[in-house]
RNA sequence: GGAGGGGUGGGUGAGUGGCUGAAACCACAGGUUUGCUAAACCUGCGUACCUUUUAUAGGGUACCGAGGGUUCGAAUCCCUCCUCCUCCGCCA
């Protein structure tokens, strides 16, 4: 959510943001300005009547005490009239406030000036590529064939038990996941993150806080009876951890890491994109979250990116970094990088991390502020997050890139102590 | 799931219908004093919003877990919900 005053003073900037992000109509800005004016007018009127009513009530109290019954009775009658007016004004004000709020929620974050303009994925800028790319003397297999050969993941029984996109990891496959989780968490802690174990379901306020609601409810599984949502990422519970809080400047930056399963409905996908581990309804991810002072957030974005890239480098995975264009970056972000690993068996890039600065967009919804020495009032903080990393596609890339002609799969140096072996073989 | 008791400002904690946006203490910030540290004393210190011929300023409104109600007037009374604690039940 953007600051109302910012929209008042920078209406064109916001209109451009809507156009560039291709998320709605720029007339939303005019709607906000109109509703804002209405709301302020109504608020002022309401407060004037409240002032009168308060004064009246106070007089009544004093007269009663002095025994001036007649005067008190007259004032009570006057109070009754004010009360009726008050009721109407309260209703108008509430309606105006709700419309304003709902319209504000439809306005996307403003992209940072360094974000390239564009509408399509092809407009994203490949900012960096990191090898080495694996060389093969044979045709490398896609990971789903390797998984089947070594009996590491059971998709069919997952489908039977839960549905497509809910695989069982089995034997060495399950252990491999666990090794990755521990490796990622340990790296994050080494980089100064505090490890969190987070709830896997959140309430509606939390889903709204990070921007899943409104509009993206179709992405989340919902426990309707209890009004809870299964988390699509640990970002949701971990960022909401500080919702409605005023933090101390001396506590910043705050950095958390959390491993959680993630649940995504992702309706409407099919074909090669969802083959094997490429896209699942449930997957494991380690998420990194920062709470920082506004002046530090772009430095924090680069730090976060470096932490995620460091993991890929330690795993020896070839990857590239994309700077997402305005049209492909999402509603809530002001700047976003994607990291994609090269998948030799499929000969394609797979997104394994998304690293974003939200500036105040999430924090304003969540009312996360901090008290600084220089400002009299609490300031809205900046939030950022990034995957470090999402597991399934990492598993896919590791299997495909490290497969040998004899069908075995080499485990990267960095993972060996976690996995307990240098080769991944049949369970 | 059953019974009972709580939720007040950064913290502890007073406050059972008007004198309470809220005592007191702690913490924090500024100042005075003392040779440093410490202590003592003084002052300040919630948030959001509206508004004022734009202000490190004034005026106003709302907020004492959330929402509704009673009343001229609610932190205070009533209802619903959330949450915490104690006991019982169930349970990994």
Give the secondary structure arrangement, pairings included.
Blueprint: H1 4-9, H2 11-21, H3 27-66, H4 69-104, E1 125-130, H5 143-149, E2 153-154, H6 155-161, E3 168-169, H7 172-190, E4 194-196, E5 201-203, H8 204-209, E6 222-223, E7 228-230, H9 235-240, E8 246-248, E9 254-263, E10 282-292, H10 297-314, E11 319-323, E12 335-343, E13 348-359, H11 361-366, E14 369-371, E15 379-380, E16 382-390, H12 391-401, E17 409-410, H13 413-419, E18 423-424
Parallel strand pairs: 4-9, 8-14
Antiparallel strand pairs: 1-11, 2-3, 5-7, 6-7, 9-10, 10-16, 11-12, 12-13, 13-16, 14-15, 17-18
Helix pairs in contact: 3-4, 5-12, 7-13
The structure holds one RNA strand of 92 nucleotides.
Written description of the protein model:
- The two termini are 49 Å apart.
- This protein has 427 residues and is of the alpha+beta class.
- 42% of the residues lie in helices and 21% in strands.
- The chain has 13 helices and 18 strands.
- Helix 3 packs antiparallel against helix 4 (69-104) and helix 7 crosses helix 13 (413-419).
- A hairpin with a 4-residue loop joins strand 6 (222-223) and strand 7.
- The longest helix has 40 residues, at 27-66.
- The protein folds into 2 domains: 4-104, Helix Hairpins (Orthogonal Bundle); 121-424, Bira Bifunctional Protein, Domain 2 (BirA Bifunctional Protein, domain 2).
- The strands form 5 sheets. The chain has an 8-stranded mixed sheet. The protein has a 3-stranded antiparallel sheet with strand order 5-7-6. The chain has a 3-stranded mixed sheet with strand order 8-14-15, with no helix packed on it.
- It binds one RNA strand of 92 nucleotides through helix 3 and helix 4.
């Amino acid at each position: 959510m953007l600051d109302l005053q910012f929209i008042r003073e920078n209406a064109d900037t916001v209109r451009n943001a809507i156009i560039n992000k291709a998320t709605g109509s720029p007339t939303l800005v005019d709607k906000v300005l109109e509703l804002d004016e209405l709301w302020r007018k109504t608020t002022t009127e309401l407060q004037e009547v409240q002032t009168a009513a308060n004064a009246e009530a106070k007089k009544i109290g004093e007269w009663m005490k002095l025994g001036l019954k007649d005067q008190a009775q007259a004032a009570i009658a006057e109070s009754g009239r004010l009360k009726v007016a008050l009721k109407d004004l309260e209703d108008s004000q509430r309606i105006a406030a709700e419309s304003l709020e709902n319209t504000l929620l439809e306005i996307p974050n403003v992209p940072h000036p360094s974000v390239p303009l564009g509408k399509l994925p092809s407009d994203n800028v490949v900012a960096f590529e990191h090898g080495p790319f694996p060389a093969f003397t044979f045709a490398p297999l896609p990971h789903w064939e390797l998984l089947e050969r070594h009996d590491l993941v059971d998709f069919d029984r997952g489908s039977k038990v839960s549905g497509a996109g809910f695989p069982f990891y089995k034997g060495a496959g399950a252990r491999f996941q666990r090794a990755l989780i521990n490796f990622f968490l340990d790296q994050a802690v080494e980089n100064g993150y505090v490890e969190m174990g987070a709830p896997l379901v959140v309430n509606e306020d939390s889903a709204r806080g990070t921007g899943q609601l409104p509009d993206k409810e179709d992405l989340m599984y919902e426990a309707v009876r209890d009004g809870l949502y299964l988390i699509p990422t640990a970002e949701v519970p971990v960022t909401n951890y500080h919702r409605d809080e005023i933090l101390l400047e001396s506590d910043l930056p705050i950095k958390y890491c959390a491993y959680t399963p993630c649940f995504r409905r992702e309706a409407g996908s099919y074909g090669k994109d969802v083959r094997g581990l490429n896209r699942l309804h449930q997957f494991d991810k380690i998420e990194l979250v920062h709470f920082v002072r506004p002046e530090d957030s772009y430095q924090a974005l680069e730090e976060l990116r470096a932490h995620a890239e460091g993991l890929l480098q330690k795993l020896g995975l070839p990857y590239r970094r994309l700077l997402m264009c305005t049209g492909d970056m999402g509603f809530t972000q002001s700047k976003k990088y994607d990291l994609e690993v090269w998948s030799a068996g499929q000969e394609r890039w797979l997104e394994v991390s998304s690293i974003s600065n939200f500036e105040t967009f999430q924090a304003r919804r969540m009312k996360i502020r901090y008290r600084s020495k220089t400002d009299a009032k609490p300031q809205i903080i900046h939030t950022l997050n990034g995957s470090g990393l999402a597991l399934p596609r990492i598993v896919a890339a590791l299997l495909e890139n490290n497969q040998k002609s004899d069908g075995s799969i080499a485990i990267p140096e960095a993972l060996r102590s976690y996995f307990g072996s240098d080769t991944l073989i049949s369970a």
